[in-house]
Design brief:
Layout: E1 3-11, E2 24-33, E3 36-42, E4 58-60, E5 65-68, E6 70-72, H1 84-91, H2 96-101, H3 106-115, H4 118-134, E7 137-143, H5 150-164, E8 171-179, H6 189-206, E9 212-216, H7 224-236, E10 240-245, H8 253-260, E11 264-267, H9 273-282, E12 285-288, H10 290-295, H11 303-308, E13 313-315, H12 329-338, H13 344-350, H14 353-358, E14 376-379, H15 384-389, E15 396-401, E16 404-405
Parallel strand pairs: 1-4, 1-5, 6-7, 7-8, 8-9, 9-10, 10-11, 11-12, 12-13
Antiparallel strand pairs: 1-2, 2-3, 5-14, 14-15, 15-16
Bound molecules: N-(iminomethyl)-L-glutamic acid and fe (iii) ion (FE).
Fe (iii) ion (FE) binds next to loops.
């Protein structure tokens, strides 16, 4: 039963309080057993009885900041190839949608993903996850959406299932994003959504291959009516709803997410105030993706306005080969402070407690509370403010997933 002592400051990130309330404990200690947290509190109150085998199992945080393992609640983890040439094209003035309409963008990754074997996607995704873990990330949502037919969507989702069976990696939470863009085999979006509902969704849900269904709602992708059709069908089959909305323009995405009772709505750069209010009353988590905003040189999502409207705001990377080719969640947190107007405490809670809620994991992850998984990171910083203000390549000194240390001892 490991006892972790000498924690300079522990950010508990419990569910109660506002987004800025990260429940800091100074001079803390923490006990876990069999991968689950047993006790958290000031080291001066460490229980002397009831916890067997304390001796010899002590760990020392060296006076560092300790945070819950970070939760990346929006990634497109498994994909073939990269798209560096589009990065250059955009610098010369081409837009994301122009590149997509010319057959590049998501469709280019679709071709490369269809050509990749399941094993190749698996080993690449495993390597990404291992690198994410070193940054302090211990849970990762991962979307399909680069297969765009039955066989290749299932291939991506099987990669996620196989990764879930491996120990020592961040836990993977799978999302079906068959409605990412229209694949070349279909001329009409309605016909493709009918195909997804009739032939793909039942196999995905029946095989337990995804927990959520997501749709990219945008000009050039799918409209609100088709998204509604697919997400209602997905909800009937027990999947939660997620949405990519209002990324390139206000498409009424906040209102749509509220009507559908979506678990989260993500991007939201152009969401109106009425959309924010609708999301707040329906309890939809607003997910900020500042890395995508930066790569596409867009106006940032107004995280502060979402908080003022009564929403909870999560922060994620959106890791994918096009709009967000980085899995660096701490970078996204610093950017959430500069671009989305969150404070460091709000950003941290947005990548722990609130991100866990955005993927239905609030019962097991996202805070350092008894009963939760012992997912945690030692951060080389004196405070959360200082950590996100003084950005360094990797401030995570040690990371534990379900109580087990990540990487070489
Ligand atoms: O979240 N917006 C749609 N989908 C992804 C981008 C995927 C890609 O460009 O490959 C996003 O930004
Ligand atoms: Fe995305």
């Amino acid at each position: 039963m490991p006892v972790l002592r000498n924690i300079g400051s522990l950010a508990r990130c419990s569910a109660g309080g506002g987004q800025a309330d990260i429940h800091t404990v100074a001079g803390a200690a923490l006990i876990w057993d069999e991968g689950l947290i047993q006790w958290v509190g000031p080291e001066s109150e460490l229980p002397t009885e009831g916890y067997s085998g304390l001796k010899g199992a002590d760990l020392d945080a060296g006076g560092r900041l300790v945070i819950p393992g970070l939760v990346d609640c929006h990634t497109h983890l498994a994909f073939g190839g990269w798209r560096a040439e589009e990065f250059s094209l955009r610098a010369r003035g081409a837009s994301y949608l122009e590149i997509l309409e010319a057959g590049g963008g998501i469709r280019s990754t679709m071709r490369l993903t269809r050509d990749a074997s399941e094993d190749a996607l698996l080993s690449r995704s495993r390597a990404f996850l291992a690198e994410m873990a070193c940054l302090g990330v211990t849970t990762v949502e991962a979307k399909s959406g680069y297969g765009l037919n039955l066989e290749d969507e299932l291939k991506q989702l099987r990669v996620y299932r196989r990764l879930r069976e491996e120990d020592g990696l961040p836990r993977v939470v799978p999302t079906f994003l068959g409605a990412h863009v229209l694949p070349p085999e279909f001329q009409e979006a309605g016909a493709y959504i009918d195909y997804l509902i009739a032939e793909v969704l039942p196999v995905v849900a029946g095989g337990g291959l995804a927990e959520f269904c997501d749709v990219f709602v945008e000009d050039g992708a799918f409209d609100s009516a088709l998204a509604t059709q697919l997400l209602l069908a997905a909800q009937e089959l027990g999947l939660g709803a997620k949405l990519h909305v209002d990324q390139l323009g206000d498409g009424g995405g906040g209102e749509l997410a509220a009507r559908l009772g979506a678990v989260s709505a993500d991007h939201l750069e152009y969401t109106s105030e009425s959309g924010m209010r609708a999301m707040a009353s329906a309890g939809v988590v607003a997910v900020a993706l500042p890395i995508a905003t930066m790569y596409l040189r867009q106006r940032p999502m107004d995280g502060r306005a979402f908080l003022e409207a009564g929403c909870q705001v999560a922060v994620a990377t959106d890791f994918n080969p096009g709009s967000a080719p980085s899995y660096h969640l701490p970078l996204a947190l610093t950017m959430a402070c500069t671009m989305n107007r969150l404070t460091p405490s709000e950003a941290l809670k947005g990548a722990t407690q609130i991100a866990a809620k955005a993927i239905g994991r609030q019962g097991s992850s996202g805070s350092l509370d008894p009963g939760k998984r012992a997912d945690l990171a030692f951060i080389d910083a004196e405070s959360v403010d200082h950590w996100l203000y003084h950005f360094v390549p990797n401030a995570a000194h040690r990371v534990f997933i379900a109580g087990m240390p990540v990487g070489p001892e």
